[in-house]
User: What shape does this take?
Amino acid sequence: MNDYGYGLHSGRTAPCTGSCDAADCPAPALAAIRAGDPSIGLTVHRMDEGLDTGPVLVQRDGIVLGEWVTPALLWSRMGPVLAEALTESLDVG
Assistant: This one.
């Protein structure tokens, strides 16, 4: 297996198949905030020849958005979950 590294996406999403463009695939965090979702997740995956088409290694849910989420508040909530997910993904992948 070639080592293309790891990809990280906000949101509990599968890596992109390459069949969508940026206009059709909004940033998951922004889409969740706009939709009024109560929480968001994150996904860590291996990258391959298609970059975002590698296998999903770790997914986490339940990061609370709240009614008045700001970028700083969102990152403070995502940080601990992200650290745990990245550590686990290194063990898995």
